[in-house]
Amino acid sequence: MRKLAFLFLTAAIALAPNFIFGQPGGSRGPAGPRIAPEDLKPEMGIDKILDHETFQKFSYQGPEVYRDAYLADLEFVKFCVENFQTENTNIYFMNTEIYRAHPPWMRMVGINTRCRGAITFLPRLTNPSGTAGLYVVDFEPFDSYSCAEIEEIFDLLIAKIPIIKGKCAFHPLEGNLRKYESEKEKYKTAGIAVYLDSDLYGDISYLPLNSAKSFGKLRIMTDDGRPSPRDIVIYKTLPNQMPRVAGVITETRQTPLSHVNLRAVQDKIPNAFIRQALKDKTISSLVGELVSFEVTPQGYKIARANKAEVDNHFANLRPPQPQFPSRDLTAKAIRPLAEINFRSSDAYGVKTSNLATMRTFKETGATVPDGMGVPFFFYDEFMKHNQLYESVDVILATPQIQQDREKLDTALKDLRNKIKASEMPEWMMKAIADAQNSFAEGTSIRCRSSTNNEDLPGFSGAGLYDSFTHKTTEGHLSKSIKQVYASLWNFRAFEERAFYRIDHKTTAMGVLIHPNFKGEIANGVAVSDDVLYESKGNYYLNTQPGEDLVTNPNANSSPEELLLGWWERDGYEIVRKSDAVGKDEQLLSKQQLNQLRTHIGRIHHKFRKLYQKSEDDQFAMEIEYKIDEEGNLVIKQARPWVY
Q1: What is the pLDDT of residues 340-371, one digit of tens each?
Q2: Do 534 and 508 sit in the same domain of this protein?
Q3: Could you tell me if 507 and 574 lie in one domain?
Q4: The dihedral of CA 636, 638, 639, 643: what is its sign?
Q5: Coil, strand, or helix at residue 607?
Q6: Which of 58, 310, 371, 588 has its CA 20 to 30 A from that of 600?
Q7: The dihedral of CA 352, 357, 363, 366: what is its sign?
Q8: Phi/psi at 472 (nearest 5 deg)?
Q9: Is the CA virtual torsion 100, 104, 110, 111 positive or negative?
């Protein structure tokens, strides 16, 4: 199975030519006059590194690592220790952006040493000080050093690159593993942290859920607090629902495929898990201030900002012109999914049309629930029948409501209550009753939002609207359908549309209805790409037990994170186990994973063609699934992933 980009490989690395600028190097001996470390030109290297910005300047990160395959795509600086264990010991740090191999670089500066290695920065991992960002030190793959020698080299390195003090660990490669195993107790006594490949997922302190840069006021939030669109919020745990914000930090690890994070991706706002974020003085000292906040795979940056920077950022982020969602009101009947296709989304909503489309795929048809679609026409007629658009007009035309979030929230609650209390015309009641009666007696019916303002290639709308289960004791299905209609006017949905200048009155609600599932064993979300760790050749899966939804998880629950290889021969790798199962258990069986692999691949390739994306386009599908009470896999939703 392909490992993540930052996974160290300890397999033997075959000898290969050495390179400068990709050209073969020469012998290992000095070629010219010796250049002292302090006399190095910047294009060659440097004698000391005092901050991480300098480390980045002299580092390399990319695929061109030649024989050092384990360093591919990592941020590293190579170094040489001259005259080790003598009175004339010196350390050279190479300009690794330009020079990637030790021997030809040493010929250039006129030195010769076998004591050489690399310092690699792993921003996600926890360092010995308990914060995010670990510097690991390793040497030539087949070299071997004693604990005493490693301790001496670390002292030399820390003296010249003090930023790694308390934040570094020794990474023994193949040649040093046996000696390390025999000296474990000595490393503990010496206080030298050791990083092994098996530690990859063990202690993550930083996870960039969405890489982006934003501006706003830094605020500490509780679950009952209400942030504004210009707030960068710090939560202990991520809430299930949240209005639009400017950025997110959580001190507890997040579920990557939750609705809140999917909206962060869609809204292009930075979102990161930072363990003990408020113990970082850089963060805690800026609470209540205007800041810039940037999340990248290499780490996070936060700094003081001014009002002009904040204003310019938001002015550039919003669309310049109003947007009007496509709304087809010519489809006037509730239709079975068999009569709805991919092009029906303008009339029935993307959720409904995509589910109907998947039922036509050979590998997925039997696993997709059957049901019906209620068109936008019904919603529009219902709103007109009860003069509810007039109530919307009052909200939109009243400055006091638009400029006061508390008053807006109250006005929207009143509108939702009015929608749920309003009557449907007789013809609509009959059509819905006929649809309800088409299901087997005693069937609970799931009523799911399906708007023209969600599940789109550039706008997921995840978590904006609500779905409801109509129980057999609740009478006419219109009750639950009106609840879905009312959710179009959720506060979070209204603010999101307002920010994107989406016209509220041309946004329309369709409803997807199908039998409700009960007693499911597990449910999850898959993406047909590894969108979190960015490994190649893998699908990314989050799975929760029972009815604990991945998209809206309990505050302290952790899903099973799994990388599923594209091909069965690639197998799978559990990145993190669910906290709800035993140590040696997993939520999905090998058979279920193989079945999912087939479905994910087919859904990806079919929808790529339907969305007219080429193989060169960045494209993936986000797929919601569940294991029902009989152990069967059910695909319940598919929408384009918003990169």
Answers
A1: 999 999 999 999 999 999 999 987 767 899 99
A2: no
A3: no
A4: positive
A5: helix
A6: 371
A7: positive
A8: -65, -20
A9: positive
- pLDDT for res 99: 95
505 and 526 belong to one structural domain: no
Same domain, 250 and 116: no
Q: Which pLDDT value is given to residue 202?
A: 64
Using CA of residue 433, residue 416, residue 235, residue 4, what is the dihedral sign?
positive
- Point out which residues pair with 44 in neighbouring strands: none
What is residue 201's DSSP assignment? T
Q: Number of folded domains in the chain? A: 4
Determine, yes or no, domain membership for 580: yes
Residue-wise over 154-176: b if at least 16 C-beta within 10 A, else e? bebbeebbebbeebbbbbbbbbb
Beta-carbon contacts of residue 174 (< 8 Å; ≥ 6 apart): 10, 11, 12, 141, 142
Question: For the domain that residue 438 is a member of, what is the CATH number?
Answer: 3.30.1490.20
Do 632 and 541 belong to one domain? yes
Residue 455 pLDDT: 63
Of the residues 164, 184, 199, the one at which a domain ends = 199
CATH assignment of the domain containing 298: 3.50.30.10
Q: Which domain holds residue 215?
A: 206-317
The full length of the chain comes to 643
Beta bridge partners of 502: 323
Regarding whether 223 and 132 lie in a shared domain, the answer is no
pLDDT at position 566, please? Answer: 95
Q: Find the distance separating the first CA and the last CA of the chain, reported in whole Å.
A: 25
Alpha-carbon span 519 to 522, nearest angstrom: 9
Q: Check whether residue 32 and residue 169 sit in a common domain.
A: yes
Looking at residue 15, its pLDDT comes to 28
Element (H, E) at 399: helix 399-402
In this predicted structure, what is the pLDDT of residue 29? 56
pLDDT in tens, 488-508: 999 999 999 998 889 999 999
Identify the domain boundary among 486, 515, 544.
515
Mark the ranges of the chain whose per-residue pLDDT is less than 70.
1-31, 198-202, 365, 455-460, 552-557
Q: Is residue 1 part of a domain?
A: no
Residues 576/581/584/587 CA torsion (nearest 10 deg): -70
Task: Give residue 31's pLDDT.
Answer: 67
Q: Which amino acid is at 569?
A: R
Assess contact for 256 and 542: CB atoms under 8 A: yes
Q: What is the pLDDT of residue 389?
A: 97
List the one residue out of 62, 26, 28, 60 whose CA is nearest residue 45.
Answer: 60
